[in-house]
Amino acid sequence: MIVPYLVAPEALEELLPDQPRYRVEQLRQWLYRHPVLTTAEMTNLPKSLRAELAGRLWPMQVEAQQTGDGGRTVKWLFRAPDGAAVEAVLMGYPRRTTLCISSQAGCAMRCTFCATGQFGFERHLAPGEIFAQVAYANAHLRAHPMPDSPARVGNVVFMGMGEPLANYDSVREAIRRMIEVAGMSGRSITVSTVGITPGIDRLAAEPWPVTLALSLHAADDHLREQLVPQNRRYPIDDLLAAAQRFQRGHGRRVTLEWTLMADVNDSADQARSLAAIALELGAHVNVIPMNPTPLAPQQRPSPERTRRFVDEVNRHGATCTLRDTRGTEIDAACGQLRVRAAT
After folding, report:
1. For residue 301, which of 101, 160, 262, 290 is within the disulfide window of CB 3.0 to 4.6 Å?
2. Which DSSP category does 47 fall into?
3. Do residues 287 and 306 touch, judged by C-beta distance below 8 A?
4. Which residues are the active-site residues?
5. Could you tell me if 24 and 124 lie in one domain?
6. Contact call for residues 110 and 295 (beta carbons, < 8 A)
7. Both 26 and 66 in a single domain?
8. Domain tally for the chain?
């Protein structure tokens, strides 16, 4: 039997040809609205159907799980039957629960500071493999609520393994399922990109008010090409022009993501240039100190240097936030758990 999440939700009838329509709708509700960890919990389905679906519920299995921050951060390493491995990180806050998901196994962007990029690209994830990360997180929260956090994923960020806009069709279908089938708000979904400008234009044409996050990391092409090789194909000016088109089309504020690295992109000059870019776009800046990885030479700056950088960006008129760093004790940065599993 095919894994249900690998079938479009509207095509579940084909998976269960001998079942009445209302039974198919019950299964669809379990998969998308009220996900559970095992089919045994799908109590309104016949035992025979639950047994038939058992062992085939999830397209990937949990190979490793780590918990940190007093139970408020959980990271999973999922393994597909073909051996492809991806990660997802669940983070609980007082007013929201955020899930960081992957769109590819590996990544072809080769960003020098990213653990995922050191492995290279394996394959794209299917829409069901992407959505299943959200469903699994909700099922986990149903069984194991986080302390002082909502027991359902309220925000999804495509900031895990892979470049979402390089797997556009699958990412689009996964977003459609989140919004149109699972009932999430488009405003609660953020798509992060290193700068695939044709993909940004395609995303701008979609009907859903998702948020666009640009993984900028450097304010000039010379430095950015060293950190993000894709910048040679889509330089900063092209990236900012695409972001402006997205903003005009959606009316949504763009976010600039900046992984802060010691003695690389944490200078006052970079801060001032970043502020100028943010003001030009009307964008918000998120700064997060780097989580060092064994395969990357860059290091995390000191707390004092980090604070000076954020203050300098704000002093020049931009809105800059120092993001909460989660999971430093559990390999929570992108690709780190996979590095540990492979070594």
Report:
1. 262
2. H
3. yes
4. 87, 334
5. no
6. no
7. no
8. 2
